[in-house]
Design brief:
- The protein is an alpha+beta fold and 143 residues long.
- The chain has one domain.
- The protein has an 8-stranded antiparallel beta sheet with strand order 1-4-8-7-6-5-2-3, with helices on one face.
- The chain is elongated and about 75 Å long.
- The model has no long low-confidence stretch (mean pLDDT 81).
Length: 143
């Protein structure tokens, strides 16, 4: 009996490090912002944060430019965003009439979805942020 209980304790003690290792690997594993979609699948991007209201970008070149930057920019989790907000541009990405992803570009090194903050891993958000700034100037609606 003693030997059987000792084996159970050892196996229980081994579970925690395995779970911890899996969580660490999951946390550090890069994600794709447009997971499951290609840039050419994106048909419209609504941008919140443009002075004067929300902008619906449907121009194929503009949509493709933003989508390709988000597609090539892998990201890793940086922290939990629960209870902490902040955004410069809220992007709503559409494939057809279906909103497939909501993503916030905060600055050139930080993005956020509903749960996590992310930092770029492959590439960066500098080009995307600058492009969004140019679109904001282009489509700025005077009040």
């Amino acid at each position: 009996m003693e030997n059987g209980q000792q084996k159970k304790r050892i196996s229980r003690a081994a579970v925690f490090p395995v779970i911890a290792a899996l969580v660490i690997v999951w946390w550090l594993m890069p994600i794709r912002i447009l997971k499951g979609y290609r840039p050419e699948d994106i048909t419209r991007i609504d941008i919140e944060g443009i002075p004067g209201g929300m902008l619906s970008v449907t121009d194929e070149t503009e949509v493709r430019t933003i989508a390709e930057n988000l597609y090539t920019c892998g990201a890793v989790r940086r922290g939990i965003s629960f209870g902490r907000m902040g955004s410069v541009y809220n992007l709503y990405l559409y494939a057809g009439d279906t909103c497939i992803r909501r993503f916030c570009v905060i600055d050139t090194a930080t993005a956020r979805d509903s749960v996590f903050f992310y930092k770029p891993k492959n590439g960066d958000l500098i080009y995307c942020k600058k492009y969004l700034d140019r679109l904001a100037e282009k489509y700025n609606k005077p009040e």
